């Protein structure tokens, strides 16, 4: 069944008529060509597809587009660009917080919420809160260091 | 962009349809309903793939694919057929594709695939190593080493000698890089462009060209970024050529992405091993006999098996040495190299057995290693090109705070946790292959570096730019490194830790040629303007070491502290120190990340990774990231990495070796050894599970 969809993606209004069973992840990647958001499993197991929905980190593969009607979506494409990086991106580069880079957009979108989380202060707390985002290359300690640094600098 | 990020006009999407039985025959496939479904363009099966796609299997194609790796290790009489989906009605493993469906969108493809129906005849199956696996096939030579070796006299043990004879087991392990393999094929006017997620750009081009019957020059493989590989993308798998054949047949670009479930069977895995290690040592701990007999599983069609005994040949000198490999064919897909293949499961067995020797003799496990120090490679009867393993031991012990004398198991506690210390040695051969690199300079002072090598997250982009910056004194920011295209000068695949040692010397060679030209031109190249290249030079490296008759290896030592909550039988790694001797370190940051990453693989291997087959159905049940557990952020403690950083100039003039794998061997053993130190409980079968810990140790029981 097709539905009329209206939402805000990276501050741009998007109107589409689309099969209601399409996931937000596939919609972003295949229809809007916002391929910064990655498909690692499509089943909510790896965290690669993390985006912000109304400011909260969510797995876009577990959301049908029909569920995000009128929502505000933020993807990695909205954070920075090659010339002006987002503070989290700068910190990830500085701390070598990625190797292959494939999980990185999801890690950074997840970190967007964690840096602002006042309950997450120690390395252990951040590590726990970042455990929904798998990194098979094993950049975990460096990811925590990057987030710690951004927090120490006053967040985002 | 990663392969699956390429969107091309009129692109079609292909998905594989998997069979659920591990052994049998396809009787009937009904695709009519799927073909009527919205957006579905075609369904290919063994009945039409040859006619419509020109899709077939030949011995030459098999040998140039993942199925062919290792086939030459077996006697001709044992030669196996090779497997390619959609070429036969024979079912060889659960998860095999029996059809591939193509549709206009990924949504239409997934829905269409659910409508294809098929009927199979199921036969008896055998998917795991079991008691009946006694002899198996005996492979001859693999990875350049003999697989069946016996040196010296076994003799009889003296009364004061000790004998440790145990079986060590490692399970099936899945690479599961976070990027599933993907191929986007664009066939136009007898030219193919393949955007592909591969560690092996040149081999992929060659295989796909052979499959299509095209000259190599007409196939262009593009691999700018790879979302992790760990070996799973180092060989050529069927989906890569299949996407190309479909694109040729339908005249449109085709995207074929493996699913997470496909990744467990369609791009290899580390096979199950069952290893017997028998050590005879004198009462001081000096080895008299070392036997390492490995039983490993492989598929009914392929050649790859896990060469567990590789490091055993070289590392610890023993007057009697026996290494054997026994391969057992199962109804499973073909395994493939997985980060430090052979060395990883092999080192778990041997480094655990050495720890057992140390505890039996009440010797500090570190002292036992020092007592059996490999001053030279006694197996190859050669000197090492360079060895600083003694420094790894000394520095590691100091940094970690390793006890100076023997410590009884169960000596330390911290609150709820029993605490233990473990260590192990790691080593990995320093390999090298021919490579070539082009360096181009513009009049405006920019440099462009091109080679076919892929960067799979290892840092190749960075260290190539560093090398050119060093060699030509060009600012780092003015260097543009371009990797992963088959039209660039050929380089080896990103595997076997040999990219740094192959590609960097070729880069240096290109820079030297440029410097000679610059001297002749009195360094006037930056004064011109425009985008025309001022100088273009291609450097090569022969792929042979600088010195003959030496043995080239990297070494290292791991030290780990684990904590065991004995009431819950919960094990965690509390801290980890590793010291590595891998030649000159080009970039301390990316190098430490490589080692840290491989140690994290070792932590996964020790504590959680375990791909299991359903005994009745013969299907891999946890072929996904929810049920196959890999380490998450909270599982990982502080990991302290140190490098000896001594260049190995016998190896190459830059003194560099690869280091993508050496962190992994020894890690699981060090953790299991630390667990013994904490609890007095020896785990010889990985992963260390709550149940294995509870089952066999009376001292560890829930309340």
SSE topology:
The complex is a heterodimer of chains A (156) and B (703).
Chain A lengths: L1 E8 L2 E8 L4 H8 L18 E4 L2 E4 L12 E3 L12 H8 L9 H12 L7 H7 L10 H13 L4
Parallel strand pairs in A: 1-5
Antiparallel strand pairs in A: 1-2, 3-4, 3-5
Helix pairs in contact in A: 2-5, 3-5
Chain B lengths: L11 E7 L5 E7 L1 H5 L3 E5 L4 H5 L5 H5 L26 E2 L5 E7 L2 H8 L3 E6 L18 E2 L2 E2 L2 E3 L10 E9 L11 E7 L2 E6 L4 H12 L6 E4 L15 H13 L3 E4 L15 E9 L5 E12 L11 H5 L5 E10 L13 H19 L3 H7 L11 E2 L4 H12 L11 E3 L2 E13 L5 E8 L4 E5 L8 H13 L6 E5 L15 H22 L12 E9 L8 E2 L1 E13 L4 E12 L6 H20 L30 E6 L23 H13 L10 H7 L7
Parallel strand pairs in B: 1-14, 12-13, 16-17, 18-25, 22-23, 27-28
Antiparallel strand pairs in B: 1-5, 2-4, 2-6, 3-5, 7-8, 9-17, 10-15, 11-12, 11-14, 15-16, 19-20, 20-26, 21-22, 21-24, 26-27
Helix pairs in contact in B: 5-6, 8-14, 11-12, 13-14
Structure in words:
The complex is a heterodimer of chains A (156) and B (703). Helix content of chain A is 31%, strand content 17%. Chain A is of the alpha+beta class and 156 residues long. Chain A folds into two domains: 2-76, Beta-grasp domain (Ubiquitin-like (UB roll)); 87-152, DNA polymerase, domain 1 (Orthogonal Bundle), CATH 1.10.150. The longest helix of chain A is centred in the C-terminal third of the chain and has 13 residues, at 140-152. The model of chain A has no long low-confidence stretch (mean pLDDT 96). With 703 residues, chain B is α+β, with helices and mostly antiparallel strands. Among the domains of chain B are: 364-428 and 552-696, Aldehyde Oxidoreductase, domain 4; 435-541, Aldehyde Oxidoreductase, domain 4 (2-Layer Sandwich), CATH 3.30.365. In chain B, the strands form seven sheets. In chain B, strands 3-5-1-14-11-12-13 form a seven-stranded mixed β-sheet. Chain B has a five-stranded mixed β-sheet with strand order 9-17-16-15-10, with helices on one face. A five-stranded mixed β-sheet of chain B has the order 19-20-26-27-28, sandwiched between helices. In chain B, helix 5 crosses helix 6. The longest helix of chain B has 22 residues, at 499-520. Classes of the chains: A alpha+beta (156), B alpha+beta (703). Chains A and B meet through helix 1, helix 4 and helix 5 of A and helix 13 of B.
């Amino acid at each position: 069944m097709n539905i009329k969809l209206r939402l805000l993606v990276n501050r741009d209004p998007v109107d589409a008529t689309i099969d209601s069973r399409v996931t937000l992840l596939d919609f972003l990647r295949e229809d809007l060509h916002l391929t910064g958001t990655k498909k690692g499993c499509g089943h909510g197991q790896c965290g690669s597809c993390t985006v912000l929905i109304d400011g909260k980190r969510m797995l876009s593969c577990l959301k049908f587009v029909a569920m995000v009607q009128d929502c505000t979506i933020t993807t990695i494409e909205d954070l920075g660009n090659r010339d002006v990086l987002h503070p989290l991106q700068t910190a990830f580069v500085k701390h070598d917080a990625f190797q292959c880079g494939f999980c990185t957009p999801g890690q950074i979108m997840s970190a967007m919420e964690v840096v602002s989380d006042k309950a997450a202060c120690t390395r252990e707390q951040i590590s726990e809160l970042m455990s929904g985002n798998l990194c098979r290359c094993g950049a975990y300690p460096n990811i925590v260091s990057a987030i710690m640094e951004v927090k120490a600098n006053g967040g985002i | 962009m990663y392969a699956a990020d390429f969107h091309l006009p009129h692109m079609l999407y292909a998905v594989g349809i998997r069979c659920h039985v591990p052994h049998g025959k396809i009787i009937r496939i009904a695709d009519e309903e799927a073909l009527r479904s919205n957006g579905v363009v075609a369904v290919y099966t063994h009945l039409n793939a040859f006619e419509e796609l020109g899709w077939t299997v030949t011995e030459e194609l098999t040998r140039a694919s993942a199925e062919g790796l290792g086939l030459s290790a077996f006697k001709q009489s044992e030669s196996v057929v090779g497997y390619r989906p959609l070429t036969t009605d024979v079912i060889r493993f659960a998860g095999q594709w029996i059809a591939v469906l193509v549709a206009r969108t990924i949504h239409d493809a997934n829905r269409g695939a659910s409508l294809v129906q098929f009927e199979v005849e199921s036969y008896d199956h055998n998917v795991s190593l079991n008691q009946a696996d006694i002899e198996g096939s005996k492979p001859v030579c693999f990875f350049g080493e003999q697989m069946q070796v016996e040196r010296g006299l076994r003799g009889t043990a003296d009364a004061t000698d000790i004998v440790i004879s145990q079986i060590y087991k490692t399970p099936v392990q899945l690479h599961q890089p976070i990027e599933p393999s993907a191929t986007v094929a664009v066939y136009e006017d007898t030219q193919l462009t393949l955007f592909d997620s591969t560690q092996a750009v040149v081999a992929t081009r060659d295989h796909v060209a052979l499959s299509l019957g095209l000259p190599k020059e007409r196939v262009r493989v593009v691999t700018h970024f790879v979302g992790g590989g760990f070996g799973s993308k180092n060989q050529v798998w069927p989906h890569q050529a299949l996407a190309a054949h479909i694109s040729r047949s339908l005249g449109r670009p085709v995207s074929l992405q493996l699913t997470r479930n496909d990744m467990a069977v369609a791009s290899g895995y580390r096979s199950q091993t069952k290893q017997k290690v028998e050590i005879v040592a004198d009462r001081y701990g000096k080895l008299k006999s070392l036997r390492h007999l490995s039983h490993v599983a492989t598929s009914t069609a392929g050649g790859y098996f896990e060469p567990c005994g590789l490091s055993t040949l070289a590392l610890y000198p023993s007057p009697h040495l026996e290494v054997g490999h026994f391969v057992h064919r199962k109804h499973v897909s073909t395994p493939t190299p997985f980060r430090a293949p052979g060395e990883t499961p092999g080192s778990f067995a041997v480094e655990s057995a050495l720890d057992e020797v140390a505890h039996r003799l009440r010797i500090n496990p570190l002292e036992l290693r020092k007592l059996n120090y490999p001053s030279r490679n006694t197996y190859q009867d050669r000197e090492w090109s360079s060895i600083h393993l003694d420094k790894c031991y000394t520095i590691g012990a100091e940094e970690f705070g390793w006890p100076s004398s023997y410590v009884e198991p169960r000596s330390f506690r911290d609150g709820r946790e029993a605490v233990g210390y473990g260590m192990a040695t790691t080593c990995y051969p320093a390999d090298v292959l021919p490579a070539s690199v082009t360096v181009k300079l513009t009049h405006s002072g920019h440099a462009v570096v091109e080679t076919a090598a892929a960067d799979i997250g290892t840092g190749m982009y960075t260290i190539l730019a560093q090398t050119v910056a060093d060699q030509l004194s060009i600012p780092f920011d003015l260097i543009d490194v371009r990797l992963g295209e088959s039209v660039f000068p050929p380089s080896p695949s990103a595997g076997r830790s040999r990219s740094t040692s192959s590609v960097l010397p070729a880069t240096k060679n290109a820079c030297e040629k440029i410097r000679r030209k610059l001297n002749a031109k009195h360094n006037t190249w930056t004064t011109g303007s425009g985008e025309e290249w001022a100088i273009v030079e291609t450097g090569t490296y022969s792929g042979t070491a600088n010195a003959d008759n030496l043995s080239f290896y990297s070494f290292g030592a791991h030290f780990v502290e684990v904590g065991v909550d004995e009431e819950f039988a919960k094990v965690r790694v509390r801290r980890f120190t590793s010291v590595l001797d891998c030649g000159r370190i080009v970039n301390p940051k990316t190098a430490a990340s490589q080692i840290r990453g491989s140690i994290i693989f070792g932590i996964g291997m020790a504590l959680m990774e375990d791909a299991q087959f359903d005994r009745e159905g013969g299907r891999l049940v946890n072929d996904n990231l929810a049920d196959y557990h890999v380490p998450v952020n909270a599982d990982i403690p502080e990991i302290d990495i140190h490098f000896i950083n001594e260049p190995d100039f016998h190896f190459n003039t830059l003194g560099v070796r690869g280091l993508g794998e050496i962190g992994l061997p020894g890690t699981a053993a060090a953790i299991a050894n630390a667990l013994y130190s904490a609890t007095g409980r020896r785990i010889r079968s990985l992963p260390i599970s709550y149940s294995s810990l509870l089952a066999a140790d009376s001292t560890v029981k829930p309340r």
